[in-house]
Structure formats: C-alpha cells, structure tokens
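Structure first, sequence second, as always.
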C-alpha cells in the first residue's frame, strides 16, 4: 500500500511540475496585410485548416480592408488588453508597426510575422514563404528567359515601404547586375495594393517608355493590374509581364498568352505553417537554435535562425495553373 502511495505522490508531483503545455488551448490573432483579396483569403483557409487539425487553437483572423499599417497598429492595440497567446502579422511597414509589436511582447504575448517581416527586434520568428534571394532570382531569370538578357524592364510594386517587396527589389537589382548586366531597369512605380492604380501606372509606363520589353508585378494585386494594362494596350506578346500573384487571379492572362509564368508559393500552406509556428512557439518546441518544426500536412519545415521557411517558390504555367484553387 505504501508503495502505491509513493508512486501516486510522484505522479502527482510530475503533473504539477511539468504541465502538458500542448494540451493548453491558445488564442492566435492572425493579421493579414489586407482582407478580402484572393491571396490572403487563401492564407486564411490554410490557417483555419491548421487550427482545426491541431484542435487546441482558437484562431482569430482579422485585418484591415486597405493596406494600412495604421489600421494594423490599431488592431494590435485593441487586442493588448485581451492578451492573446500569439499575435501573427503580415506587416505593411516593418518600422511603423514595430513599437506596437514590442509593446505586445512586453506584455508577455508571443509575436511572429508571416508573409512580410517587421524589424527583427520586434518579433520572435518570421514565417518566410521563400527566401528573398530565391524569389528575386526566379523573377529575374524568368524575365531574361522571356525577353532576353539585355531587355529594358520596369517594376510595378505595392509600396516603397512594404518589407517583402523592398527586399525582393533590392536583391533583384543585385542579381540583375551580377547575372544580366545588360538588362536595364527603367523605372519603379508603386501601386499601393490597388488594382486600379497598378493598371494606371502600367499604362503610364507603356506610354513613357515605348521601348520597354518587360514589366515585373511584385504583389498579388500589382501583377494582374499590370497584365490587364498590357492586354488592353494591345501589347500581348510584345511586352512580357512576370510577377507574383495567385493562380486564380492570373489564369485568364495565362490562358490568353498575356502572361506565360506566374511565380508564387502556396499561400494556403503559408497560413497553415503560420498557425503551426504559433503553436510550436507556445509549446516550447520552437525556440532559439531550433532546426525544424513538425507539421502534419507539410512534414518537417526548416528553421534557419529566426526564420521558419515554407520552401522554394512555385511556377504556374498554362500546363498546371488550373489545378490550383486559390
């Protein structure tokens, strides 16, 4: 009898001393750059899939209806008193959002970024859809393949403060100079995540630079806006449009030949991985020095320093673009 009492006491002590963190239900506030567009709708689907699969995550997916860092900051501030376990944000501006994220960490809330990073001291981990260099090289290589290594090109980006677009553009310029030194970048125009503005600035580029041979669209909104301008200007087959967007947004342009290749990653998987990252951070299985995290659907995903990597970019062409429903 005494033996059983000793065992029971030990087991009780272990239960108190080592609580099963993985059984604790957590709340994750996940903030996209902007709600209501295909790309972030797809990320939301993946995030919900992961939360359901895990069974112990209360997911709140909420964001601004315009690409505004001010609205993101307001949302974070409003949630500080509710103390979610994790705030995961796709940042519209890495610097402007940093004070709010630091305030959250100061209150004991875990902070991660996804899709677009903040300043490194304002978050714990960044869930990166692909390395900046991999995206930059894929874009420039595809443009060179389509219009030649000495072509004159232009860029339509989202904004000059968007962290991922800024990094891609910086690395595109470096890679262009190294790999294709005769390729000339004529201009870079912002479109502020507006389809109409992307269309307008592309039209302006086509008029101002009649010798332009290729246009990069560096966001899921800039790319279809640029493609529509090239289509309406009657420049299909004369001006290549290469960029980053969702298959659903680009399928008609690929089918009619305005666009040959769409470069992206799977945003459904990005949302999915973000929720798994939040869970692993709360469980303590993701910490400084971790080399990977484990998921059910995606298996192991590499952790490189303070970044969790989804994987290499994907190429969508006429052969496979209709297979993807996002």
């Amino acid at each position: 009898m005494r033996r059983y009492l000793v065992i029971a006491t030990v087991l009780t002590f272990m239960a108190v001393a080592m609580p099963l963190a993985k059984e604790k239900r957590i709340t994750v506030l996940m903030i996209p750059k902007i709600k209501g567009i295909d790309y972030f709708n797809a990320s939301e689907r993946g995030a919900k899939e992961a939360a359901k699969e895990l069974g112990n995550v209360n997911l709140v997916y909420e964001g601004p209806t315009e690409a505004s860092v001010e609205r993101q900051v307001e949302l974070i501030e409003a949630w500080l008193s509710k103390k979610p376990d994790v705030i995961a944000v796709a940042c519209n501006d890495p610097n402007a959002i940093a004070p709010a994220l630091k305030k959250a960490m100061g209150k004991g809330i875990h902070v991660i970024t996804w899709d677009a990073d903040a300043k490194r001291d304002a978050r714990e981990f960044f869930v990166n859809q692909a390395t900046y260099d991999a995206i930059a090289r894929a874009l420039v290589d595809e443009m060179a393949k389509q219009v030649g290594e000495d072509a004159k090109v232009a860029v339509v980006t989202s904004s000059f403060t968007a962290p991922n677009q800024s990094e891609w553009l910086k690395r595109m310029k470096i890679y262009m100079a190294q790999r294709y030194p005769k390729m000339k970048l004529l201009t870079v125009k912002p479109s502020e995540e507006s389809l109409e503005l992307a269309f307008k600035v592309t039209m302006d580029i086509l008029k101002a630079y009649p010798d332009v041979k290729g246009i990069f669209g560096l966001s899921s909104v800039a790319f279809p806006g640029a493609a529509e301008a090239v289509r309406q200007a009657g420049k299909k087959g004369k001006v290549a449009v290469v960029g980053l967007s969702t298959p659903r947004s680009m399928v008609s342009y690929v089918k009619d030949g305005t666009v040959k290749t769409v470069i992206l990653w799977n945003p459904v998987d990005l949302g999915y991985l973000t929720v798994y990252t939040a869970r692993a951070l709360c469980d303590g299985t993701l910490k400084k020095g971790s080399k990977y995290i484990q998921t059910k659907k995606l298996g192991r995903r590499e952790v490189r320093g303070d970044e969790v990597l989804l994987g290499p970019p994907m190429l969508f062409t006429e052969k496979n673009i209709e297979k993807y429903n996002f």
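Margin note: Confidence is low (pLDDT under 50) at residues 1-20.
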